[in-house]
Design brief:
With 280 residues, this protein is an alpha/beta fold. The protein has 11 helices and 14 strands. Helix 4 packs antiparallel against helix 6. The chain starts with a strand and ends with a helix.
Length: 280
Amino acid sequence: MKPKTLYLSDLDGTLLQNDATLSPCAVRELNRMIEKGLCFSISSARSTGTVIGILEGLHLTVPIALFNGVIYYDYAAAQFVRVMDIDPQAAAQVAEVMERYGLHNTMYTYHDQQLFACYTSLDTEWERQFAAERSKFPQKKWRQVQSLARTAQTERAVFFSMPGPKEKMDRLYKEMAAIPNITLSYYLDTYEPLWYLEIQAGGVDKRLSVEILRELAGADRVVAFGDNHNDLAMADGADLFCAVENATADVLARADRVIPANTADGVIRYLRELEETGGW
């Protein structure tokens, strides 16, 4: 009996086009292949607030991983199936450092099938627009709180996301790295000249998403696709790792195979090639 393989793709810079959408070809071909038996899922740093709209029209049968392995969401059933909390003491320390750096958002908390994006203030037009665009879907609500640190002590904090210029974020990263029981992801944004620092529970990253989605899918092996620094953890957990041509240098160096760029629907072309030469 042929081993069951899960094909696991990052979104931004990998499966998505440069305008953060799925091409019509990707939607059509993924649905066709899933109907024929392709086992396919997503591991992304995004949250439900944007992913639900991006994946609209896809007929996914395996839960997806969001926030770099923090959240496992059954897209078909519209339910969270697993959520990894940050240790409350560690979360409070992270929030205290954020507030000291003048970062007033975003800390994500979770309660009873609801994700909350917590902030004390939205100070710039970019922040207000960012929140407005990501408030359209019911699975993530934006909520103003008096203190991120105090909220982290009383609620289930699951993820922090902080964008900024490199010099400031380098200092912030160094300070956050001294806090125990957390995992940090730090990388240049795919779309804008901003550096993102993302924080989740210790031991939680895209490598964990490979392990959990392998289990949820009942798969024997995992082939993963990525483009950015946070995908290196996914590469470590996968049986085979494919980087798109537009990937960062460190990801290209780590790849077992390089496939066409995201703008050429490289993931789709790879899957169709497999289909034509023996299946998945």
